[in-house]
Amino acid sequence: MPRAELPDRARCVIVGGGVGGTSLAYHLAKLGWDDVVLLERSQLTSGSTFHSAGLVGQLRGSVSLTKMMMHSVELYRRLGEESEFDPGWVECGGIRLASSEERMEELRRQAGWAKTFGLPLELISAAEAQEMFPLMSSEGVLGGAWLPTDGYIDPAQLTYALADGARQGGCRIFTSTRVTGIEVRDGRVRGVRTDKGNVEAEVVVDAGGMYAAEMARMAGVRVPLIPMSHQYLVTQPLDAVREARRSSLPDSEGNDRNTRGHLPTLRDPDLLVYYREDGDGLVMGGYERRSEPAFLPGGPSRVEAIPVDFNGRLLEEDWERFEEITENSKRRVPAMDQITVTKLINGPEAFTPDNEFCLGETEVGGFFVCAGFCAHGLAGAGGIGKVVAEWIAGGEPSLDLWHMDIRRFGAQYRSPAYTHARIKETYETYYDIRYPNHERRAGRPLRISPANLWHREHEAAFGEKSGWERVNWYERNAAAGDEQLRPRGWAGRNWSPAIGAEHRATREAVALFDESSFAKLEIEGPGAAAFLEGLCDNRVARGVGQIAYTQMLNRRGGIECDFTVARLGEERFSIVTGTAFGNHDREWMRRHLPEDGVRIADVTSQWACFGIWGPRARDVLQPLTPQDLGNDAFPYMSLRETTIGNVPVRMLRVTYVGELGWEIYCPTEYGLGLWRALWEAGQPHGIVAGGYRAIDSLRLEKGYRVWGADITPDEDPYEGGVGFCVKLDKEGDFVGREAVAAAKERGPRSRLCCLTLEDPRSIALGNEPVRVGGEIAGRVTTGGYGYTVGRSIAYAYLPPERSEPGTPIEVEIFGRWIEGEVAAEPLFDPRGERVRA
Hints:
Blueprint (H helix, E strand, L loop, with lengths): L8 E7 L3 H12 L5 E4 L15 E2 L6 H20 L11 E5 L2 H15 L6 E3 L1 H7 L10 E5 L3 E2 L2 H14 L3 E3 L4 E7 L2 E7 L2 E10 L5 H6 L8 E10 L3 H9 L17 E4 L4 E6 L2 E6 L10 E2 L4 E2 L14 H14 L8 E11 L6 E4 L5 E5 L5 H18 L21 H13 L23 H6 L2 E6 L2 E7 L23 H11 L2 E4 L4 E6 L3 H6 L13 E7 L5 E11 L2 E6 L4 H9 L8 E4 L4 E7 L3 H5 L17 E6 L2 E6 L8 E7 L3 H12 L5 E3 L1 H11 L14 H4 L16 H10 L4 E7 L11 E4 L2 E12 L4 E8 L9 E6 L2 E8 L14
Parallel strand pairs: 1-2, 1-11, 2-8, 4-13, 11-20, 23-33
Antiparallel strand pairs: 3-7, 4-6, 5-6, 9-10, 10-11, 12-15, 12-18, 13-14, 14-15, 16-17, 19-20, 21-22, 23-29, 24-27, 24-28, 25-26, 26-27, 29-32, 30-31, 31-32, 34-37, 34-39, 35-36, 35-38, 36-37, 38-39
Helix pairs in contact: 1-5, 1-9, 2-5, 2-9, 12-17
């Protein structure tokens, strides 16, 4: 392409001509962005897109991702009408089989989840599945789930159709144009360098697919993805397939399960395999238990070295590694024993450490990522393009996308070895059932509290979050618990009676918790007070030594952050937020920083943090400190700098469990000594060491919210039950003020409600449908068991007219509708007397 055709400037440059890049260009065009340039190093689809198997399934593990997949299907249905290019969409429906009782339970759970979206998912018998996919053997199949609106799509045709729509909206596409550098200056992207010339730009998007990590390194950004070798085979035409396709034509009675002359897609996750038709042949693939990166790391950086000429190419066939999948495929579809293979496709697919996309703006302003599709990019492409386009155009995403946000990854993902270990685990367990409170194993232990050795010596059962080893419970406490309270089904799998014992000790005596993993941020400098007041909905610039619970809102009034702010000095503040949210909250604030005068520092690793709560907490602590711990000298929601034993500490009188107590912070090197001092001082008072699972049950009884589940960027504070924090009358403006003022005047669209269920051992895990008056009215956000109130508790958003306490409700838990009611909250200590004791 002649250099003259490449413009010197563009509003946005998209690097990558796969399905992700073209979908983004298409959706930006729909938003009126007509000055967009898309650059492709070779030809459209020549990276990973061209060899995709093309299956499209909609029901996923999160609300936002499912909505994105549903948008994809809506787009694929209409795209052919907008373009001269047929996207190749085949809405043949999809079947997911259960070959074990555990998998059947998963399908029952998914059927309930689907109801909340209006997806027509239906549980079917093995015989019904075989009727729709006659090639399959029903041996060992207990049942299946049938979603008639799923299907498959041709990857190349879809990409060309999206590119055509983008061109119609003004986007200019340049193939055979290789990006050789990304210009960054003063913390912002300024443009790209290519082998055909340079292009200045306000926004640059890395939609490089398997090249995305390599591309991001040009901007000094780490994108933790690795191209993994992913295989499937294509068969030659089979008579059995022809006959099966004929049998799927509509019958004389208009059978609503017919697939209009197409076989449905078929997945058997217990056998690690999937199938779809390919003309009169089949495509069959799966996820091997022995994974391999597509390209070996090379050089001192140990990062993946993709050959510069790897365009439109495949990897060598690896039949040995594919053998387990091949043998499994014959068990489910016996005709696979007689097939002639046209080709074993071995293509590189970019996977991420948590099997979620990498989307959004990086630490370099204006430099976005739209990559890491984990072998379901064709299914998600429509939704991906939509949300990233909205993010670029509007400055923030229109959905809660934190679990896909590129900023979610901690510094440990700078390590190629750690990244590969996590991705390897993700790939090899792709089809595994994710039971509640499932714990990953790869790359552990990594980040540990100074009291970690003590925990191990005292039989801690560890979990992991954001690389931190955290205590879930201490198994030595199990003897004091009640095995008869084990929840039914899945909720009882990763559970111990110790949780209840630790819960009760907190309510009845005193318990000690290690919260060193909590993310800790410090904001200081001239203007720090004004800066925080301009972001928080509550008044946070109170007196030195005072603490405020607050949210930060987006421009839509949604809850972007949720944490406590402590004023350490006139222009120095501390923020404590959830373990997994430190990166998010820091970056949210950093995006709003003034040009000078305010600094944000992540000091998580500098401070150990231990929580001590319960009616005897003051009795344990007072002999250890010269600080008067009485209410007058040390009131609730205040802090003091003092000592405990020989350790200098910062004590915050706050709680996430609803009891008298303190969070105690000390420099990390003092942590083990402080823990031991607290433990020894607590012995006469019956102190018990507790874990995070007890904290969760305690906070449920008090109605304390979890950001990212109970409250998200999609709900405003009044809907989420934290409207008491909003101070519309405070001086000065704050982000989201106009939107939240309008929300208050309008009234809530829905309300987060506390639900109690009649069967205390039926535990909601999240996402279950809630029915009021026989109609689906909402879905569960979080749930668990309250060991003090003796009830199964769930939270869910319900319409305001159905949110009054006493309203009868039902929650579907694994196919059973469990009766209950909306309860007045909080369930425990409604007047908050215990925290102020």
